[in-house]
Specification:
Blueprint lengths: L8 H5 L3 H21 L7 H21 L1 H8 L3 H28 L4 H10 L1 H18 L3 H7 L1 H8 L1 H17 L4 H26 L4
Helix pairs in contact: 2-3, 2-5, 3-5, 3-10, 4-5, 4-11, 5-7, 6-7, 7-10, 8-9, 10-11
């Protein structure tokens, strides 16, 4: 998630980009709903829906975190314009993932949900990841940026990396046997973090102009 940016001539020409990303990002949800309505989610439709929603949340969260490193490496600025949209889509799918678990899988049995969270580490990791995303989504507006101040806002939104780590841990503990896919996301997240660190170090070492 990113601070709202002041419009520029180029930015105004790309005003269509964030809405397009949001529209495209909602297509998988529509497809999932159509598949569910047609009974095409396989022998365990709830598990399939949970898997798809959770994976979409993780993919979109990592994609939002890739915006700044991509800009640092390539010089492209358009990733920064869609970073907020990607982050909010990730939060949307994370909420859908949790609500499907709570309402459909557990029938909103609070006791069963609490037992799951306290006794199953992968559910605990996923729940904490969602809780971390809540303040990030709630402070994604220009008004909240102004209220918190840029420095405090940026420190808060660095928690997106913590949410991504917890999401990957949730995924890793969930798959149990074949951890290839979560390890790929872990490697990608480590690469993005390394780019941010390298850029910060080079910036500090650069002589003042």
């Amino acid at each position: 998630m990113s601070p709202p940016r002041v419009g520029t001539p180029v930015g105004r020409r790309l005003a269509w980009l964030p809405p397009a990303v949001v529209t495209g990002g909602l297509i998988p949800m529509a497809v999932l709903g159509l598949r569910a309505g047609a009974g095409a989610l396989g022998p365990d439709p709830v598990a399939e829906a949970l898997n798809q929603l959770g994976l979409l949340a993780l993919v979109l969260l990592v994609a939002s975190l890739a915006a700044t490193p991509l800009k640092l490496v390539s010089g492209w600025t358009f990733p920064l314009r869609i970073r907020k949209a990607l982050g909010l889509l990730a939060f949307f799918y994370a909420c859908a993932h949790f609500l499907t678990y709570a309402f459909v899988d557990q029938g909103l049995d609070v006791r069963a949900i609490v037992e799951d969270v306290t006794e199953r580490p992968f559910i605990l990791a996923g729940s904490v990841a969602l809780l971390v995303l809540v303040p990030l989504a709630a402070t994604s507006t220009a008004g909240m940026l102004k209220r918190l101040g840029a420095a405090r806002w940026k420190r808060l939104h660095r928690l997106a990396y913590a949410a991504a780590v917890l999401g990957i841990v949730h995924f890793f503990l969930r798959v149990k046997k074949d951890a290839t896919e979560p390890m790929i996301y872990a490697a990608l997240l480590a690469l993005l973090f390394a780019v941010r660190i390298a850029s910060a170090v080079l910036h500090r070492r650069a002589p003042p102009r």
